[in-house]
Amino acid sequence: MRNYFFWILMVAGCLALACNSDYTPKPRGYFKIGMPDKKYNWFDEPGYPYKFEYPAYGKVIKDSTFFEQQPENPYWINIDFPQFGGRIHISYKDVRRNNFDSLVNDAFTLSYKQHTYKASAIEPEPFQTPNGINGVFFNLKGNTATSSQFFVTDSTEHFLRGALYFETTPNEDSLRPVNDFLRQDLQRLIGSLQWKD
Predict the structure, then answer these.
(1) Is residue 151 very low, low, confident or very high in pLDDT (cuts 50, 70, 90)?
(2) Residue 89, CB half-sphere, CA atoms under 13 Å: how many?
(3) How far is the C-alpha of 26 from the C-alpha of 154, rounded, in Å?
(4) Residues near 122 by Cβ (< 8 Å), separated by ≥ 6?
């Protein structure tokens, strides 16, 4: 019987102490991600119809598969960011061998159709680079698989499309710092892009 009263007093004492403490709920947090210094290299491989600057902390890899098949041309590459679990897919098409309007429609379709149900907003922004190349940059908001896509073209010979993806379940809040960081690199890539003849 004594043990019973002892336990009741212990529980009551703990409850009394717990009721008097101030509790502050903690906000949801994410791991801090260290960002590397901004440094760039040139991608200027022989035989490729384009060249541009890309981040030194990225690794350029020739795209080897396209839906379990070989890519349709040898100029498709990826820029991998292993420290972020991210990848920029870059595809290239020769406008002289393809219908220009179809290429533009495909770029809009890939930005809208596949992401409309998850995106809270899709903002296309037309631009012209310092090298006189025109294109459209797509900012996708919400928990989409990609937050940044673009295409650039001279409308007569060259058409290049890019999209940034991550190997994780999309979460806009947790990916925002990395998306913002890599978006600057995408803009540097686009701004430095030049066609080669």
Answers:
(1) very high
(2) 16
(3) 52
(4) 111, 112, 115, 116, 138, 139, 140, 141
